[in-house]
Amino acid sequence: xxxxxxxxxxxxxxxxxxxxxxxxxxxxxxxxxxxxxxxxxxxxxxxxxxxxxxxxxxxxxxxxxxxxxxxxxxxxxxxxxxxxxxxxxxxxxxxxxxxxxxxxxxxxxxxxxxxxxxxxxxxxxxxxxxxxxxxxxxxxxxxxxxxxxxxxxxxxxxxxxxxxxxxxxxxxxxxxxxxxxxxxxxxxxxxxxxxxxxxxxxxxxxxxxxxxxxxxxxxxxxxxxxxxxxxxxxxxxxxxxxxxxxxxxxxxxxxxxxxxxxxxxxxxxxxxxxxxxxxxxxxxxxxxxxxxxxxxxxxxxxxxxxxxxxxxxxxxxxxxxxxxxxxxxxxxxxxxxxxxxxxxxxxxxxxxxxxxxxxxxxxxxxx
Length: 367
Description:
Blueprint: H1 15-41, H2 44-64, H3 66-74, E1 78-89, E2 96-106, E3 113-122, E4 134-139, E5 148-149, H4 155-163, E6 175-178, H5 183-204, H6 206-210, E7 224-225, E8 233-236, E9 240-244, H7 256-262, E10 273-278, E11 282-287, H8 307-317, E12 325-331, E13 338-345, E14 348-354, E15 360-364
Parallel strand pairs: 3-6
Antiparallel strand pairs: 1-2, 1-4, 2-3, 4-5, 7-8, 8-9, 9-11, 10-11, 10-12, 12-13, 13-14, 14-15
Helix pairs in contact: 1-2, 1-5
């Protein structure tokens, strides 16, 4: 592209620009992946990281660009007359229409040059712009492609534009400028960064996400028969564990809950739990992610011998006639372990709470 005298040529795809595009795409991909993976594996630190990462990156970009913005703001714009060679409305359905202008700028102290740019023009003012019309423009001397039409020039420049006549404006021999396009390379690099960032997060947390052993010996889950019967199924990953009993069996039966909890500690895996839920034939444990400040609890330390009595009390003394389902939830989100028994029936929902020793501390009958 020819250059105007005294102005450096624009750089379209410098290495710095491409690297910044790749990094921006990587941050976006990593942030989205962290939000999704953090929600799936229930990792609070990872989810918070996904929220904070783009904010921190945006702040760093803003600070890094401050010197450049200061230099650009210090440049005094140059004012000149220009001849409209062509104009075309390129879209828009509001009162301001984007118009593609082709101008020949005739500066007082420089050679004329051609420039193409897009500027919003109000529909009411659109008839004021016509081919071969003279307008007042301003542009940074070092970035002439950023030329803009001055809609309300000073009286002096307005008189000069009204009286100016350019019958023979250089055309073919004049330097030409246009707004630097983004180009395909920028989009491809940003997309590559997006994919790399997302893939990096998924690979880092693949063990929690898919239940795979980093050594390659594990699958997404580890299904295996329980110790008591092939009618039950156990699935354990690094994030959670589930035991499902076969027909005719219940976790209130003697020894069933102890055997199920024991299956989570086979092979020396003594992990603390964030939440434990017991239903008639299903036991679910959400394990505490490493590095989480929540206290958690050891599943084996639950007062499981008291569970049948707690369910009996909840189904018979809280006003639920013909109870349909019951559920036991254990968690330690605050300072002490809390065991809740919730019973549902045609009359509504009732519940009771017990402490870590299985002693009832609160009752909520059907209302």
